[in-house]
Amino acid sequence: MAKHPVPKKKVSKSRRDIRRAAVSTLTAPTLIKCANCGAQIPPHTVCPSCGYYGGKQILEIEA
Ligand SMILES: [Zn+2]
Predict the structure, then answer these.
(1) Domain assignment present for 41
(2) Which HAMAP family does the entry link to (predicted)?
């Protein structure tokens, strides 16, 4: 008897690639568009380019 986990069936190339693609969507960086200036920023962060968050200017951005 095998003492370690052994897959019962070989995973097809297509199944393997589908699984890897699913993982990459979870680990890929999520970016949203800033509602004020349209910059690509992570969600729930103050926009570093215009300083807006939730429709208000949070940071003073020096031009
Ligand atoms: Zn912005």
Answers:
(1) yes
(2) Ribosomal_bL32
Number of structural domains the chain divides into: 1
Residues flanking ion ligand 1, Cβ below 5 Å? 34, 36-37, 39, 47, 49-50
The range of the structural domain enclosing residue 62 comes to 30-63
Q: How far is the CA of 39 from the centre of ligand 1 (A)?
A: 5
| Residue 14, pLDDT above cutoff 80 | yes
* Residue 27: per-residue pLDDT: 81
Given this model, what pLDDT does residue 61 score?
A: 83
